[in-house]
Amino acid sequence: MTELTEKEWLDWDAYVTAAPFGLPQHLSGWRQILHQTNGYETRYLLAREGTRIVGVMPLFIVRSLLVGHMATTMPGGLCADSAEVAAALITQGQALARQAKVKGLTLHDTRQAWPGDLSTSSHHVHWLVALEPEADALWERLDGNIRRQVRLARRNDLTVEIDRTGQALGAFYDVFSRFTHQHGTPVFSRNFLEAIVAVFPASFNIVVVRHGPQPIGAYFQLELGQTMYGVWGASLREYLNLRPTYLAHWEILSYACSVGYRYLDMGRSPAASNASKYKGQWGGEAKPVYQQVISFSRGPAADGIVNRAESDSRFQLMKRLWPRLPLPVVQYLGPMLRRHVPFA
Questions:
Q1: Would you say the pTM of this structure is higher than 0.85?
Q2: What integer pLDDT is reported at residue 301 of this predicted model?
Q3: Angle between helices 327-338 and 169-182 (to 10 degrees)
């Protein structure tokens, strides 16, 4: 068991890309992004059998004034060839977390419930849509109501831009920061997105829906292997009657088919939420997302940050007060708060 060195970055990423459960968030570039934008201490753990990589664990030490100091993985947890390799990575992760004097270790949004001495919860799912070689075949497979909503969106004179250069990043951030403001959630910084575009220049796309010149919906996707992943996205509530969300998701699906992807991962949602029900209309399969926590002391650290953000009274109070603040204020303060509540 070793920690990642710069000369091993390519080997790490080659392993993640080829691994059946490898995700974009497992890639080594996030180490640079999150250290640069949030100042997190990074401990990227690497397991080998001989010279062959058999598991990786991207670990961050987050010193937070809001939720306490913690060690956490990127969303997606760890990636390993077997439960035995995962157990070894978790054991080493615990040791590093204890050395850092944090409250506990969280495997964040892991797609597998790894065995061991972990407190495990699963209140979220991610929706995985199997694609077709041709978009027309996928269109015919869709539920009739979905097709009707897309047609209505087109009649409302909405246009869609698909950007792979980063030029649409400003439009995306404008929409997404307004959406998070409306919903009482601090937004991350634009610098964070700019760093992602710089580190992964060929592995992202941005979809923007406009009504005339006005961007009213925007969606940010990452790409890895055979799958396109919806990571962040929203449509502004005052334009929902124009159906921008339906048109955006159809264009994302159509584009994913056209460039040869086999799956679209529509991202995480609370299992019984309206967002999850909406995603379920697109013909995908819901798969569980787990939060796994090892606490070094009793108290709130026994729960993952995602679950705490949805249940803690302090977070709920902030969620009610946040939309009352002016947008420029929350765009300034949001990234400062977000740094202390990572990946929630």
A1: yes
A2: 44
A3: 90
